[in-house]
Amino acid sequence: MDHLFADGVKDMQVANGTVRFTLVQRGAGERELIDVGRIIIPVNRARDIITALQRGLDDVADQIRKSRQEGKADDSAVASH
Q1: Using one digit for the tens of pLDDT, what is the confidence trace for 5-40?
Q2: Domain membership flag for residue 39
Q3: Which comes out higher in pLDDT, residue 22 or 79?
Q4: In this model, does residue 75 exceed pLDDT 80?
Q5: Pairing state of beta strands 18-26 and 8-15?
Q6: Virtual CA dihedral for 58, 53, 27, 1, nearest 10 degrees?
Q7: Structural domain containing residue 35
Q8: 22 φ, ψ to 5°?
C-alpha cells in the first residue's frame, strides 16, 4: 500500500461516475502547491465515505477534548496541594 502526505485539496471533479480529489502539499513558497496524488471514488459511495471520514474526525476531536479536560483537572489537583 502506498502512503501519501497531503495538507490540502486542490480541486474536485466529477467524471464517468467517479469523484476525483486532487491532493496537494504546500511547497516552499507561500502559494506553491505540489500535486501528490488523486483519490478516486464512485460517486454513488462518495457521501458514505465522506460521512465515515467526518465521524472518525469527530471521534478524534472528542478524544483530544477529553484528554485536555483531564489534563486541566490533573493540573488543578496538583495546584491545590
Answers
A1: 999 999 999 999 999 999 999 989 878 999 999 999
A2: yes
A3: 22
A4: no
A5: antiparallel
A6: 130
A7: 8-79
A8: -90, 120
Q: Which residues of 40-72 are buried (b: 16+ CB within 10 A; e: fewer)?
A: eeeeeeeeeeeeeeeeeeeeeeeeeeeeeeeee
Report DSSP state, residue 7.
S
Q: Is residue 30 in some structural domain?
A: yes
Cell of 55: 465521524
DSSP helix/strand/coil, 35? strand
- For the chain, counts of helices (H) and of strands (E): 1, 3
Query: For residue 36, is it within any domain?
Result: yes
Is there a domain that residue 2 lies in? no
Side by side, which strands form the sheet with 18-26?
Answer: 8-15, 18-26, 33-42
pTM (2 d.p.):
0.71
Give the 3-state DSSP-derived string for 36-63, with helices as H, strands as E and coil as C.
EEEEEEEHHHHHHHHHHHHHHHHHHHHH
